[in-house]
Each structure stands twice: as structure tokens, then as C-alpha cells.
Amino acid sequence: MLLPTQQKVVRLAHRPTTEIDPSYHLPLTYERVPTFDDDGKRPLVLLHRLYLSIDPAMRGWMSSARSYLPPVPINEVMRGATLSEVVAVRGVSRLKVGDVVSEFAGEAGGWQEYAIVSAKSVRKIETWSELCDDNQQIPRELPLTIHLSILGTTGLTAYFGFIRVGCPRLPSKSKPPEVVLVNAAAGAVGSVVCQIAKNVYGCKVIGVTGSDAKCRLLKDDLNCCDAVINYREMENEVSRNAQTSDPAELFALKSIEFQKQLRKVLKEIDSKALDIVFDNVGGYQLNECLSRLNYFARVAICGAISGYNNDLTKQQSGNTVSQTGLYMKHGMAIISLRAKIQGFIVLDYIKEWSHAKKDLARWVLEGKIRYQQEDIRDGLENAPTALVELFRGNNNGKLIVKVGDQLAKKNKIVSRL
Predict the structure, then answer these.
(1) Could you state, in chain order, the average pLDDT of each consecutive group of 10 residues for the chain (417 residues)?
(2) Looking at residue 142, what is its pLDDT?
């Protein structure tokens, strides 16, 4: 197997304070493919990137603001979760050439075609026989990319955020189904949360999303939402009718209208309050949900995509509206309702990933979670633009960049289901 001498690499050149400019913040370079240059005592592997996951968290990693992972240093390879194949091994290792491995926020970055990493920093992807019971049928094939979506950190984020933080309960004769609201509900994480809530736990589910097509996907195609809110249509209507351009006043008007939408959909599903909120957005959507909580409600804070393009290193002044901050308009209600608000990171549960993947695989087999074709863009050079598209909502489901084709043809690996 002859490897090239040059590779494509994307490095973080500048820290964005508003929207990402692909060529300025994340320029493409051409560099030498790395080679082993140590004494061979430490187990190392040379990886060929196959797929790169495009995630909202990347915007936070580009900032110098405090977060759960250190910021990506300027001029370093941009960080990302990947699927890669092993093309060379140095030292004693459990891995061999041809193995496909996953890497989350890897030690070598992620946004490059080839990288040398320690063997212990990557996880060999599980086969379906390892994930499923012996008596479960494996009727069809699914692509390798499912290990970046349902069986990757996307599905794991949905699993732990909803089950461990949201703490859902099954309905019974004495207790009706719980009411769950998920925003960014047609997104990669949100759509899995909706399906787990509806099909595994029997909840009533409200999905908030940004287009009529995505509303139809949730309600009619995936059949995982009992009611939906098209927030973008609502925002456009507010902007058309508003007699102001002041951000704080527009924020207030959107809040009022969203509150009306909440009342409408709750009435539509014959409910009065929310038991679980799975929040991916922040901003006015989260704020207004806090006024509609039930007693002992649980709010899982997964993300705040509405404000990721703000400068997170600056304090908000008194006359500005923070899209990311928790606006405690309903703080007293949270106290009196004994509600719980908790942020979480999927890495908190890394020791439980294997068990969670088996549950997710079983639910896919049982039809409780439906695999959706990922939105795959071709070429590492298109990754920066894909990240911009993610924040504009111009993606359909899980967004992934295909970096390269498998080189180890003799060990071609497919995911079987």
C-alpha cells in the first residue's frame, strides 16, 4: 500500500467573534504526510481519515472562552471527531492495518487526511455481532457513518442527556405519559431524542424546528412528535410586523410569540405543562419553556446553538440580550416547581458508552430508532463551509464530511444490521 507524501490539512488561523469565515478562520493547507520517527517503544498508529463529524461544539473549541475542553491553539489542526482506518502500526498494539477506529476530539486534531496518534487514544469500532444479542436478526447493511451518528457521540449525547439527565419514567395506569419538548428537534441529536422519548418511553413529544419540511419529517415521516413548532416561520412573522430593529425588543417579541405557540401545542396534545425539556438552542426558546414546566420537571442543557456565533469571551452589557445566557425571568417558578436544570457533556459518561451503544443498536433493530441517511459533503476542503452551513440550518440530519476512501481493500469493513 503506497501512501501519498502530501496531504490536505485545515488549521485554526484566527478565532472568530461572529460568524465563521471559512478561508480566513479555517484555511486549507498542503503538508507532508507524517512518518514514525521515535524509537518504536510507544504503540503508535498512522491513521487515514475516512469521515469527519461536523458538530456545533466545534464553534466553542475555536473560542478562547473557558469550556470542557481546552481551546484549539492558533495554527493547530482543527479538532473533530473522526472515523479512520489504520494504515500502519508501530510497536505492540491491539490494532492492525485495516482496522477502522473512532476518535473523539483526538490528540492530533481531526481535520487532516493522515495523522499519527497513540494506539490507546482510539477505539476500534464495534461489529454488529458485538453490539447485538445472538437471537437478533441482522437483515440489512448500514454504512460505516452510523458510527458517527446513532452509534457515535451524536446518539450517545441523545441517550445520556435524555435518560440520565432527563430521567424519563414510563407511563402507567396511575401516571399519564410525560410531556417532552425538544428544540433543534430535526437535528442529529434532537431527532434521536424525539424517537427515544416517543418510542422507548411512550412520552408525548413536542418538537421545535426551523422549516415546514422538518416539521413533516418529525410528525409524519419519523412519527416521533405529537406536535411541532416552526420557530423560523414564527420569527419571520415577528420581524415583518415589528416596528423596531432593536435586538432586545425583537427578543421580547419573539418570546411573547413563542409563548403563544407553547400554549397552542400543549392544548393540542391535551397537556398543560412540560415534564422534560431537552434544550439544544438556548435563547428565548429555553427562557419561555421555563415558564411552562411541571412540578419536578427536568431541563437537560445540551447546547446553545442560537448564541454560538457570539463572542463568548465578552461580558454582556446591561442593555444587551445574551442569546447564550440563561435569562432568569422565570427563576421563582423554577424554585416553586422544584425543577432541575442541568448541563451535561457526553464525555461524563465515557465508561458507559459500550452499554449505551448496545441499547441504541437494539432500538434500531426493533425499529424504535430509524436510521436516516446522513448529510455527507465530499472533501476535507469543504469542511469549513459545511460548519458554516450547520449554523445556518442548511443541513438535513447528521452532517459529515467524507475525507477519503478506504485504502485497505482486503479488509473492507461494513456495518451490518
Answers:
(1) 88 94 97 83 90 93 88 95 94 88 83 94 87 67 89 96 97 94 95 98 97 95 97 94 90 94 97 97 92 96 72 49 54 87 94 94 92 93 96 89 83 38
(2) 78
Residue-level pLDDT at 328: 58
Q: Which residues of 254-290 are buried (b: 16+ CB within 10 A; e: fewer)?
A: bbebbbebbeebbeeeebeebbbbbbbbbbbbbbbbb
Judged by phi (left if over 0) then psi (alpha if -120 to 50, else beta), residue 105 lies in left
Ramachandran class of 379: left when φ > 0, alpha when ψ lies in -120 to 50, beta otherwise: left
The residues near 44 (Cβ < 8 Å, ≥ 6 apart) are: 36, 38, 89, 90, 91, 93, 116, 117, 118, 119
SS (H, E, C) 209-240: ECCHHHHHHHHHHCCCCCEEEEHHHHHHHHHH
The SS3 of residue 318 is coil
| pLDDT for res 157 | 97
- State phi, psi for 249 to the nearest 5 degrees: -70, -40
CA dihedral 375, 381, 384, 390 (to 10 degrees): -10
What pLDDT shows up at residue 305? 73
| pLDDT at residue number 308 | 56
- Looking at the DSSP bridge assignments, the partners of residue 276 are 180, 298
Query: Which pLDDT score, from 0 to 100, does residue 163 have?
Result: 98
Give the dihedral of Cα atoms 324, 325, 329, 334; nearest 10 deg. 100
Task: Mention every residue, 6+ apart, whose C-beta is less than 8 A from residue 403.
Answer: 49, 50, 51, 52, 82, 113, 379, 380
Angle at 157 between CA 154 and CA 162, to 5 degrees: 130
CB-count exposure of residue 174 (10 Å: 0-12, 13-18, 19+): exposed
Nearest in space to 215 (alpha carbons), one of 202, 232, 229, 205: 229
Residue 114 bridge partners (DSSP):
48
Provide the whole-model pTM.
Answer: 0.89
Torsion, Cα of 296, 289, 397, 150 (10° steps): -10
| Residue linked to cell 488561523 | 13
